Amino acid sequence: MNVEQIFDSRRQIRRFNHIDIPEKNLVKNLLEKTWRLVPSKQQCMPYKVHVLGPDRKKEKEIIYDQSTKVEELIKAQEKNPGELKYPSLQCTNIFAPYVLIFTPRLSKGSPAVRQRIRDGHEYIVCDPKRYKEDVQINCIEIGMFATVLTYLCVEKGIDVSYNKNFCHWPKWKYMWKDLPFVDEPPYLLMSLGYRRYPNKEIRKPLIEDEYKENIDEIINWI
Q: In the beta sheet, which residues pair with residue 100?
């Protein structure tokens, strides 16, 4: 398949196969290739990718549990959390064989960047006191990493999905307390694996009236 066919074939997979799973070395190779290919401003890569493999069921259960509560928690504004019920949304893709958690990271910077800092230039992503402020750069670069990885995965027949239904605001930090390796606010979850129902995952949205708006509403020629 060419590039267009690969991206056009991607689906948001909700249920993954837990018997036939991608080999760890293959996934590791794809992550290393993505790291090598993805662009980054001054090569700082101000983010970290935590990888939960097939053996990390407990950690995935913790994420699933808090992801099912996030919408109700927001509505309740921390009132009577013990009485909250799970919303209908079920984030089953969190149980994919491989789950990636993207968080911000304090970049050390290359030797050239460190020299520029000594010369008085400002690099927020390398500033221990301010590196979390540059949310726009972090999110853009995480999106580019996810896009490159998506291409490489789909090219190898590995399905992917994305998830934002989790607590990522500092005041909800206690929701991640059981996963101490997530020491920064998570921005994105990405799931990798083989789809559970290869013949049933058709290009049809979960809600029938979901669709992309007209291209003229998105792309504005001046």
A: 51, 190
